[in-house]
Amino acid sequence: MDPTASPPGTRGTGVSPVRIGLLVPLTRPGWVEAGRHLLAGAELAAGEVNDGGGIGGRPLELIVRDTAADPRRAAAAVDELDRLGVAALAGEYHSVVAQAVATTADALGLPFLCSSAVLDDLTEKPTDLVARIAPAQSHGWRLYADFLLAAGHSHIALAAEPSAYWAAGARVLRDHVAPRGGTVTEFDMRALTPDALCAQLAADGATVLLLLVGHPRPAVPVVEAVRSDPRLAGLTLGAPAGQPEFADWAALLGRSGTGVPFLRYLPERLGPLGTRVGAALRERLTASPSFVAFEGYDTVTVLAHALRTHGTDRADLAASWPHLEVEGTRGTVRFSRPPGSDVWQWTWPPVAVADRDPERPDHLRTLFTG
Predict the structure, then answer these.
(1) Cα(184)–Cα(172) distance, rounded to whole angstroms?
(2) How many CB atoms lie within 10 A of CB 130?
(3) ∠ at Cα 277 (95, 147), nearest 5°?
(4) Model pLDDT for residues 7-22, shown as the tens digit of each residue
(5) What is the pLDDT of residue 9?
(6) Phi and psi at residue 336, to the nearest 5°
(7) Residues 355-366: what's their mean pLDDT?
(8) At what angle do helices 194-204 and 219-228 cross, to 10 degrees?
(9) What is the pLDDT of residue 2?
(10) Which of 98, 276, 310, 321 maximizes the CB count within 10 A of its CB?
(11) Between the CA of residue 60 and those of 22, 42, 66, 165, 344, what are the distances in Å?
C-alpha cells in the first residue's frame, strides 16, 4: 500500500481536493497492526465521502504519513503537512506521538482530531484546536479498575516499562483502588526477565498481573512464562491497553492469550451504521476489524461533516468542535470539555472490558461495561 495514496474518487476530477493529513504508525517500532486498522477505517470513510459528492463538490484527499511511533518524526510530518496546505490533521494511535502532533499542530494553528490516543494530557495548555474521538485514559482505566475490584482483585501487580502512557495508567489505577482498600505493586521490566518476574509474583501474592509493556515483546514472553508456571496457576492476566484485541496477539499466543481482559471502545452490539461499516472493514482488512478501525472511520466522518458545514478555513473548523453532532459507528459524536481536559473530547464513546473466549479464541466476549 502506498502510504501517500488517495482514496477512491480523488483523481481525475479537475477540482482541487480538500486535504486532510492522516498520521498513523505503519512501520516498527510502531504498532503496525493498529496503524493498518486505523488507516483502513479512515480510507473507507474518505471513499464514502467522495462517493457522496465530496466536500461541496471537491474531493476529499487523505495525505498519509507514517509516524513509526516516533514523536520527532511525527512533528516533522505535521510541519510538512502544514506546508502542503491541509485543512486539518487526523489519526495517530500512540499517545506520546499524539502529544507531539497536538503540540505542533496547536503552534501552527492547525486543527487536529485525534483518533485513538488516550493520554489525558495531549497538550501542555488548553487549546481549541485539538479534539479527540477516543476516550481519555483516566475515563477508561477507572472503569477497568472497577472491573478488577468487582471481580475480587484487590491486590494488583503491574509488569511495567517506562513511558508517560504506562505511568499515567498506573497512577489512575492506584488512585482509584486505594480508597477502596486495593493495593498496586509495580515490577520494573527493565530489570526483570519473564522468569524472574514469575518468581517475584509467586512471592508477592497478587491475584492479577496487568501488562503495561510493549507488544509483542516483552508482552508475549511474559504471558508465556506466567501461563507455564504452576506457581501462578490462579493468577489472572490483564492488558488494559488493548493488546488482545488484535489478530497478531491470537496468532502469537493461541489459547495462552485467551482470558486476558482488555479495554475495548465498542458497544456490546453495533447499530445499523456500525454493522454496515464493520462488514466493509472486515472485507478490506480480511480480518475482524478492531475498535481502532472504527475510530478511524468515525474520525474522517466527523471531519468531513465539519468541513461541509463550517468550511475549510482552519480557524472556522476549530471553532466548530462544540457545535458538531455526527452519527458515528458507535453512537452520536458530540464534543465537550470534561473537567480537567485541555482539548475538546467526545464524552463519551462506549467503553467495555472484553477478552478472548478460552473456548473460542477467535471470539471476543464482553465482560463489563460502563
Answers:
(1) 11
(2) 26
(3) 50
(4) 444 444 579 999 999 9
(5) 43
(6) -145, -175
(7) 96
(8) 50
(9) 45
(10) 98
(11) 12, 11, 19, 33, 24
| Among 3, 162, 122, 13, residue whose Cα is nearest residue 68 | 3
Residue 286 CB neighbour total at 10 angstroms = 7
Chain segment 65-78, per-residue pLDDT in tens: 999 999 999 999 99
Where would I find the H helices in the chain? 32-51, 71-83, 95-108, 137-150, 164-177, 194-204, 219-228, 247-253, 272-285, 291-310, 314-319
Q: Taking the mean position of all CA atoms in its chain, how far away is CA 66?
A: 16
Residue 301 amino acid letter: T
Report the candidate in 194, 130, 182 with the shortest Cα–Cα distance to residue 157: 182
Locate cell 461541509: which residue?
Answer: 308
* pLDDT tens-digit readout, 37-71: 999 999 999 999 999 999 999 999 999 999 999 99
Q: Which of 244, 270, 274, 241 has its CA nearest to residue 259?
A: 244
Determine the length of the chain: 370
Identify the residue whose cell numbers are 483518533. Answer: 115
Q: Tell which residue, 286, 313, 245, has the closest CA to residue 86.
A: 313
Q: Which residue has the cell 491470537?
A: 250
- Whether residue 141 contacts residue 173, with contact meaning beta carbons closer than 8 Å, is answered with yes
